[in-house]
Amino acid sequence: MTGSIVTIGKQKYVVGLYWENCPDDSPVKAAKAAMRGGGQRVYAYTIRPGNKRKERIPQFGLWHSKLHAGCGLPALAPNFARQQTGSWAGAFLVSGGVVVMIGYDDLISPDGDMFYPDAASAQQHLTRVLKEGRYNRVYAPKSWNIQGSMQTTLAELVQGEPDFRLKSRGALSGAVIAVIVLALVLVVLAVIILQDKPDIVPMQIRALRP
To answer: pLDDT tens-digit profile of 91-117?
Structure first.
């Protein structure tokens, strides 16, 4: 699987995550467990929560690429899926290659978040997928002559504020970050107080002497 960073409009996205379903309510724990237990090194992950009606289970995507610049960027597949319903399969021309997005029953397929440097491999992948399942939305370049498909751009389908940003495997939780920030603030305040009243410490030392 090839990981890549593509630009849609003015926003950069990562493409090439491996997606897994998470039947329980702890996708973060499941993602971190998969990162530790997998044979292939994982550099980052992102979570796609289930919907409020629990008609769609959560998913997590694993980022295997060494492109560390991808950490912190939004993942394209879940932002694309946010605009889709049912099952979809599409190939989209981007700078440097072709992006392939595939989802079935509102879930991103394991091989449904792909980047190909060459159009021939992307077309072969999409053609194979269409033979194996039924999709209510199919996107492809007009020149590919895929029956029932429509040609469009990712910029027209990926809209709104980007979400689902990648987190590195060593990312700190919000609670830990808050504790660290609070500790730094207290240290800074202590330094300021000591600078304003430099005689406090010597006076205390003299008071303790017999």
So the answer is: 999 999 999 999 999 999 998 999 999
Contact 99, 92 (CB under 8 A): yes
Residue 47 phi/psi, 5-degree rounding, is: -115, 135
Q: Domain map of the chain by residue range?
A: 4-168, 174-208
Q: How far apart are CA 13 and CA 67, in angstroms?
A: 12
Three-class DSSP category at 47: strand
Tens digits of residue pLDDT in 3-53: 899 999 999 999 999 999 987 768 888 888 877 765 567 888 999 998 876
Beta bridge partners of 14: 5, 75
Residues in the chain: 210
This prediction has a pTM of 0.75
Q: What single-letter DSSP state applies at residue 120?
A: H
**Residue 21: Cβ within 10 Å count:** 16
* Order of strands across the sheet that contains 88-94: 107-116, 97-104, 88-94, 137-139
Q: Exposed/middle/buried for 12, CB within 10 Å: 0-12, 13-18, 19+?
A: middle
